[in-house]
Amino acid sequence: MKVQGSLTLERRPEAVSRVGPGRPQPLGATVDADGVNFSVFSEHATRVDLLLFDRCDAPRPARVIRLHPEQHRSFHFWHCHVAGLGPGQVYAYRIDGPRNTHHSGARFNHRKVLLDPYARANINSCWDRSHAIGSGDNVEHSMRSLVVDLDDYDWEGDRPLRTPMADTVIYEAHVSGLTASPTSHTAHPGTFSAVMEKIPELQRLGVTAVELLPVFDFDETQTLRIGPDGTPLRNYWGYDPYGFFAPHTGYCAEPHLAGHITEFRDMVKALHRAGIEVILDVVFNHTSEGNEYGPTISFRGAANEAYYHLWPQDRSRYMDFTGCGNAVNANHPMVTKFILECLEYWVTEHHVDGFRFDLASEMSRGPMGYEMAVPPALWAIELSQVLAETKIIAEPWDGGGLYQVGRFPGKRWAQWNGPFRDDVRRFVRGDAGLVGEIASRLGGSADLFFPQQVLPTNSINFVTCHDGFTLNDLVSYNHKHNHANGESNADGAHENFSWNCGVEGPTDSEEVERLRVRQIKNLLSVLMLSRGVPMLLAGDEFRNSQQGNNNAYCQDNETSWLDWDQAEKETEIRSFTERVIGLRKRFKTFRTPRFFTERHNERDVADVTWHGTQLFCPGWDDADARVLAATLGGFQGDPDLHLILNMYHLGLDFELPIIDGHTWHRVLDTACTGPRDLLAPGQEEPIEADVFHAHGRSVVLLVALPDEKDT
After folding, report:
1. pLDDT tens figures, 476-506
2. What one-character-per-residue DSSP string does 401-468 give?
3. Residue among 353, 358, 556, 677 flagged as catalytic
4. Residue 129's closest CA among 141, 121, 140?
5. Is 395 a known active-site residue?
6. pTM (two decimals)
7. Is 669 considered catalytic here?
8. pLDDT of 401 over the 50 cut
């Protein structure tokens, strides 16, 4: 198949011949030796037409095949087999049925052209969103689906990597934003191919997985609003999908339809060769069709009453637990099937290593929108044999007030740990009385996860993510600056637990800059030296800034694009980030997939003993406490460690415990400038005294090394 960048496609030369009954499973368009089998779910439809187009941009279909219930329907499924078709065929559906939206919720409209929900590729060259709204015919302005041959690719023996969760370090990135800036110096900025060019950077950093913001097809043409400077603002992040089985064509170096599948697979294969896993941020909580005033693209026109939560009193209206106009009814049997088959497809056909589920708590809501004790969709994912070794990560809340951190359904699900983010931000900026919370966060958040009988590796620890301030902005701004989003600075989180270190925004003050560098090191150190799975936001390693915008979802420009010139200039934080990730990998203590239990090692040192400035006095009940220390006993060949967190603004003396035959050596001190801030093995500096003076606002790590014996 050859498709040009103009998105025109000639039909394959074989003549379309006999139309057979086909089979109901699998859903979607499936190529075989004789042609293509088409199957679509629509329980209450009375008429289904399959539209076949000669070209991607053809204004009308070349052939319409009407599916007759007696021959082409099996219960909920409408299907047919068309001989003579093959990869490259452009197709879509028209579906008709009862129109009683108030009582049944059905929104059938035969005048609307619908995508196949299971399509492996979609075409938007004729798409005009406005024509998909209302009751008029939109065939000339519709999207279409494409038949794809998934077997025409050489994986060269590639398989998902299956890196243990305990050893995982996640790097959250936007496919386009990673390289869209001219400063990335990539051949095809903003694409899957360009991600491959940054693999050496990721290897040097030491991360083990990239978590990519949504790569499913989404409507990048939709103008959300006009910005204050007159620039149209669009959906940049991609959290508004319509094609769940299709890599987003906009992330392709060459927009050859179905070629986008090859480019995505090439990226996965290259990352795997470098030892880096691929985790996809997936959005199964809502779709691009929006509320009752939104466009009809696919799900709404085929089975609106199945795919979405509708108000019982008036089923013409959508429940909205997402803030995006609609909420997917994930626990309807057919929708659960759809979600599970989608995930299994990305694993089996694209070798994806894991998924992060946006607003995952919405998927635990039942038919009436209430929280379910045993939600079928989430348990189906947890128990799937195909997904058994795939990482599954929940954002354990939704836009409707459901908050499930520490009590998310299932045992295998890892969870974004919002309390970790908030507690660490507050503690590092100097808030008092948080030492108990910080002790829990350092140990894997046992207060949240131990009652659920899960592990520290169920906690995804993060200080920053795409949603909020960057790490640099967290120490540079007290307030969000989202005016460019065109919402009068009303969007985005109002409370960020940030501190600008004395000046709002950029500054020429060397004193303020030194403090900001130290605070960034403090945040990175706590993140990497805590049990659980750390996640780093792309660009934080070189102080990438969004100029105080904490909700850059619509900023497809320099605000969101990583500035790689900044990466060349910011050597201290970049080097520190690489080395603190290496420090985590050096000591198993920080990667142990179990909570502290005060068990003792062969040196009679407990796995954890908490202190303050004085030994054994951590100040749990001290409302003014801003310091915490911990002695961490090493197991399985690991040395004993002593961690000091001094978030008071002045330097303080911390008593050190005595370990017979060992002397404490300094490994990490964020008060030092690089490279003395983090010392390599063999370069640790001995501490001769029985106290250590920790500078104000600093993190220190000491290692107990055996004393040299007299010869």
Report:
1. 999 999 999 999 999 999 999 999 999 999 9
2. S-B-TT--SSSS-EEE-HHHHHHHHHHHHT-SS-HHHHHHHHTT-HHHHGGGT--GGGEEEES--SSS
3. 358
4. 141
5. yes
6. 0.96
7. no
8. yes
